[in-house]
Amino acid sequence: MGELIYEGKAKQLYTTAEEGILRVAYKDDATALNGERREVFAGKGIRNNEITSLIFRYLAENGVKSHFVKQLSETEQLVREVEIIPLEVVVRNVLAGSLAKRLGRSEGEVIETPIVEFYYKDDALGDPFINDDHVLFLGAASAVEIETLKQEARKIGDVLTELFSKANITLVDFKLEFGRTKDGAILLSDEISPDTCRLWDKTTNEKLDKDVFRRNIGNLITVYDEVLTRLEEVTKHV
Ligand code: UDP
């Protein structure tokens, strides 16, 4: 069913009979340290597909367009074909991870005005942190596109912070990817899941994301399930 055109760490992309529409299949693999550590968690693909599909549907209802067309099965989605912009757009609401390390401050400090960052998608370079001028120099995006990426990222951050908050979860930080359609429009793409977000329980600060794998501090499937159940609970009307 379709030709495999790309295989990443967590997903496969296939062509479909319909021009401009691709099928994404979510895998059970988890990687950390830029792919150096790899483990398979049975059922992870299902959770991330369900969570991403739910979030993309919720974003659409709140005026944020994405490449998402529809959920096809437990592990698959149909998406619009886009040319991926080679940038990871990270939004930070609370200090954690690489930024806490870089600034030499402890995790957990609230960032009043969310910080938007760009990382250049290049495995060989380890996805380096870059600024707007680097983006222009690399030809990764135009000046107008940079502004669109930042605006969209902040808007998505606002919508998702509120959604997760209803589920008693703090959206600490998250990573987005965007693509260009054939007519040059910019669309949110890739996935939004506990693989790509830091999620902390609002009451206990328990980590409900891939950090349980990165830091060996819990059962990945149990916490991904918890996130899915809570999101389903607060979006029952959707
Ligand atoms: N992130 C991601 N993919 C990457 C790098 C980061 O999805 O290749 C997400 C990560 O899950 C977190 C946010 O982006 O929610 C910020 O990550 P950070 O820069 O702190 O890096 P990390 O600590 O994950 O190495």
Automatic annotation (TrEMBL):
Family as reported in the entry's similarity comment: Belongs to the SAICAR synthetase family.
Residue stretches making up the SAICAR synthetase/ADE2 N-terminal domain: 4-230
Pathway(s) served: Purine metabolism; IMP biosynthesis via de novo pathway; 5-amino-1-(5-phospho-D-ribosyl)imidazole-4-carboxamide from 5-amino-1-(5-phospho-D-ribosyl)imidazole-4-carboxylate: step 1/2
Keyword Nucleus attached: no
Gene (name only): purC
Domain of life of the source: Bacteria
Enzyme Commission (EC) number: 6.3.2.6
UniProt-listed HAMAP family: SAICAR_synth
Protein name per Swiss-Prot or TrEMBL: Phosphoribosylaminoimidazole-succinocarboxamide synthase
PROSITE patterns cross-referenced by the UniProt entry: SAICAR_SYNTHETASE_1, SAICAR_SYNTHETASE_2
One matching Pfam family: SAICAR_synt
Catalytic activity: 5-amino-1-(5-phospho-D-ribosyl)imidazole-4-carboxylate + L-aspartate + ATP = (2S)-2-[5-amino-1-(5-phospho-beta-D-ribosyl)imidazole-4-carboxamido]succinate + ADP + phosphate + 2 H(+)
Keyword field: ATP-binding, Ligase, Nucleotide-binding, Purine biosynthesis
